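Here is a typical sample entry:
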Amino acid sequence: MTSKVSIRLAAVAAVSAAALLAAAPVLAQQIQAVFAGQAYNDDAAQRGQAAFGPSCARCHGANLAGGEFGPTLTGPAFADHWRGQTGGDLLTYIQTRMPPGGAGTLQPDTYADLAAYILKANGAKPGASAPPSPAPSPEAQGGARRARTGSESTRAQPKDAEAQRIFAARKAKLDAIKPVTGAMLAEPPDADWLMWRRTYGVSGFSKLKQIDRSNVARLVPAWSWSLPISQNETTPLVHDGVLFVMSAGMVQALDAATGDLLWQYVRPILPTNLNGGQQHRNKGMAIYGERLYAATVDKHIVALDIHTGKVAWDHEVAIKDAPTDPENVKPQTFGVPIVADGKVVIGVSLGIDTPGGCFIVALDADTGKEAWRVNTIAHPGDPGGDSWNGAPITERYGGGVWTGGSYDPRRNLIFFGTGNTYDAGTLLQPQPRKGESNDALYTDTTLAIDAATGKLVWYYQHMNRDVWDMDWVFEQSLATLPVDGKPRDVVLTSGKLAIFDVMDRATGQYLFSKDLGLQNLVASIDPKTGHKNINPALEPVSGKQLHLCPSSSGARSWPTTALDPDSHVVYVPMVETCTGYTWTARSPEEVKKGGLDMAYPSQPPKDSDGNFGRLEAIDLNTRQPLWTVRQRAGMTSSVLGLSTGIVFAGSMDRYFHAYDAKTGKVLWQTRLNASPNSSPITYSVNGEQYVAVVAGGGGAFDGAAKPFTPEIDSPAAGVTVVVFKLGK
């Protein structure tokens, strides 16, 4: 039923539009020419009139004529700006930009109604059966979705000479971007940051030398750029002076020296249950050739042209061969894509009640066609296929892959880590059939995969039967270390326990472990096999609370280490935590359906001095710590290393520090608008070095640390790229 308010608003808008068109024939012709062929649904336009008052009129005026804080939405300027564009472009713009500071906060239908109202007020023709669409569906475009970008030819051409000069310079910068070759990925240019942790070996280290220990204290802000609200775990990429960054449903290309917007890709309207992409835990993108590869919150991988942001291909990552109907099951979390052997490879984590386990998928970088996928839970017939306590594949859950992989081009091997089982009861409670073991392969495992075929070459399970949620899913660092007096190509990784395992890169042979001493679950480690012997006092008993260290958020989590490829020192960000772990037995029917059966109330370590954050430097040559920095606030960012003897890291109290890599001494610090739950980077443009970090608290990692330091506030908003350079 139409309210009196909406009737009045409709009358005002109708009179305004009629008077405008009758009193200014020339203006009417201009507007109608701009929106020729555009149609709108009259019912939608009426709803848009009603919504415009409370949502838009404060800035744009009640009759669209503009106000103190917003431009007119009718008239020559409006017509000129939208010349050559569509109602779908208008809808995409208001959905991703309006209202200021709250983009995406209105319902998708409301945005469509507002666009219809604006079209009607500007002389478009009635008659559409539905509100304007931001883009055709992927199927209608053969898998492609259209991006609204700042560099498209449909942008209104400015008449101002200065604006023309600036737009021409931006276009020239985009046109000058060179393709990224496989050789460049294998040996990244010093000025660029081309992947998640810069190198295929995920070192997180840069060879740039302008910023060093003698001048790092002179760092000052260079520029900053606000991003859509998301869970802020992202890593910007930089190539040829252009910075690419993703947050929520938006990918943007920025001038890496100034922060000016060059183009942007906006994901077409997302399902309402995805909340505009605000829960998107994007950790990074990949770049190869002339394309940027991004994982979206609605289970797609898109390839974008690096010069324009236009979609090259759009591939939905479907769950196939699932043991149950997968129609309404969607990937919960993507990892970070990596390009290897001409393929975009990414881990996919499913919901806690999705049986059959998670997977790693490879897509052809040119076409988006799926090349192969590897299941992270062993299926019957696979090696370890009967390691699930007799449970059938329909009752196996977990094995998530929610970080990035590493790649050895010489061996053509990709390395990924996996998480634990979601349902401990599958492994702890009796099953109708007894299996060969309850190790639960391939959970908590390093997988070495042939990049060409997807064949599993070797695997090493770091912890069997993990029913405590101690994932070993984090980065797989590649290095050459001295082992028994000889150099050895190795894979180095740790789980939440902050126990590092080192394996031979070619064979998976266990070499050695290093326990950083923040856990009480593993009583001992077999020196020959690396098998973890569990503390008997922490074996789960239904309903009994156990003091377990660390908590389920981990002494370590996804914030990555930095590994100096020359000194073989690894810098590890950590949080000292514990939990009152409780497992609760459930009925066989409940266990079959999956879901969590563990609780993790936060508890401090028994001997805690009130300091929970920890940054530690470990010499992998001697396997001994070089230094340790402890503080009240937990560490929240990955570590960035410079070959000039500096490491950067951020913490929950919003501080971003530069430390002396040899001693741990703080050389510089600044306070950000929110905690940096992200991976900082460094790059160079025209000989000037920059350090960039994305800040914006409120993510899952912040939430887990909050009970330990309740006095530290980390705002759950204001996601921002903050960039520094040396002051004069």
